[in-house]
Amino acid sequence: MRGQYGAGTVLGKKVTAYRQEPDVAPSSDVETYVALALEIDNGRWAGVPFYIRTGKHLSARNTEIAICFKQAPYASFKDTPVDSLQPNWLVLNIAPSEGISLQFEVKRPGPVVDLAAVKMDFRYDDWFPKEPMLDTRRCFMT
Questions:
Q1: Which residues is 52 bridged to in the sheet?
Q2: What is the pLDDT of residues 35-69, one digit of tens each?
Q3: Cis preceding linkage at 132, omega within 30
């Protein structure tokens, strides 16, 4: 899928539509947003989709790797159809907020089989103070 951004707000600042930008032809068909679904054609990665989305003037900047686990071929609990279970997710957050999260289904305590999705999150910013960046130029100066 590809497209162009329209007028709106980005980070609290109004932006004009792509075709109204200076030096852009009103009939331009240059894409400013792309969403791809890719697959690697080998034995290890066959059937595993990779999704890439990128564009200009998006509402948020985010880089992550999201892994959606396949459904189990059968349910662990009697009379629970497999297709009713939510998928488990492992998300590696790369930028701007580094961390990792895991979402999975658990059985609520009690005699009734009642499943709920729970999420565990770890964010570096929550556990470690910000440290100033090392000036690497000084490391290599003589």
A1: 36
A2: 999 888 998 888 888 888 888 887 778 888 888 88
A3: no
Full-prediction pTM beyond 0.70? no
Cα–Cα dist 3/57, whole Å: 12
Say how many C-beta atoms besides its own lie within 10 A of residue 71's C-beta: 13
* Alpha-carbon span 26 to 32, nearest angstrom: 14
Q: Quick one: which of 127, 116, 62, 109 has its CA closest to 84?
A: 116
Q: Which of 52, 91, 47, 84 is nearest to 68 (CA)?
A: 91
Residue 106 CB-half CA count within 13 A = 9
Buried b (16+ CB within 10 A) or exposed e, 91-130: bebeeeeebebebeeeeeeeeeeebeeeeeeeeeeeeeee
